């Protein structure tokens, strides 16, 4: 509900915590915040005010069933929820791309995480039974069909990380170093996206081993993303799943942002008939495994994963069986009836 005193009070029921901030004074906090949950709505308010939107205070009850620090875009979900709330209360409306940019500015410049805008864009632009293929250079996107009999199973490794304290921010810095070296030989390139697999094979010896591995992952991921989009457009989920598997292996070996727990979950999933593919979600260093599997094979998949994980770690990993659905939106009272 809106208030008249520029004060935003948020009651996070899941955490049993209440926090508040004043809208006029957000700049004071911008250089000192970290990853505490209240910094995300604060950052959204700050980014909107930077874009010259006038905001009102509000009393908010925040409830979420997304695990935190698990690679499931919980921070992006909070950002987009607060942005939509301010849009509704203040009478303005942004397009999906502008919303995603506000979320990215929140993460990069307020919270201090060097993330992109994919999570925020997916939060608002998703459609039922479709994946979002987003080009973050041109900001174009297309929706790719996923058959309704394919389930998305999320399995929790139990490993948590904070992106502000992990090696998450180191990886883009290493990629920038690799770019600087390769640009001496490829003047046309702006980022690693502009390097082909053949060019990297030819010029990779100029890079130290660590930077060569980072570049190999990024260049390979760009190729896999495009190949995956083509496969889904052709209804070829099998090829898409194989590309997911290759992506996880490259993340493990080249980008080095996986964990033993995630690797075990991936290997256990790959071995189950009916599993198309699996790779970890989000920025890595812990969190959830995301698995594409035939709906009829879900029980066997979960049983096999549980057996392998209990055998290695002595505990059963929580799992969620999900479907792709529409993105975030405001809900009227009539929709609760």
What does this structure look like?
The strands form 3 sheets. Strands 7-8-6-9 form a 4-stranded antiparallel beta sheet. The chain is built from 10 helices and 9 strands. The chain folds into 2 domains: 119 residues, Ribosomal Protein S5, domain 2, CATH 3.30.230; 189 residues, GHMP kinase, C-terminal domain (Alpha-Beta Plaits), CATH 3.30.70. By secondary structure, the protein is α+β, with helices and mostly antiparallel strands.
Strand and helix layout:
Elements: E1 7-12, E2 17-22, H1 39-50, E3 58-62, H2 74-90, H3 96-111, H4 118-125, E4 130-134, E5 141-145, E6 150-156, H5 170-183, H6 197-203, H7 209-233, H8 237-255, H9 260-270, E7 275-280, E8 288-294, H10 298-313, E9 319-322
Parallel strand pairs: 1-3
Antiparallel strand pairs: 1-2, 4-5, 6-8, 6-9, 7-8
Helix pairs in contact: 1-2, 1-3, 2-3, 2-4, 3-4, 5-7, 7-8, 9-10
The helicity comes to 40-55%
Q: Please identify the structural class as seen in this structure.
A: alpha+beta
Please count the helical segments: 10
pLDDT below 50 for ≥5 consecutive residues: which ranges? none
Give a quick account of the main beta sheet: strands, pairing sense, barrel closure: 4 strands, antiparallel
| Number of individual domains | 2
Overall morphology: globular
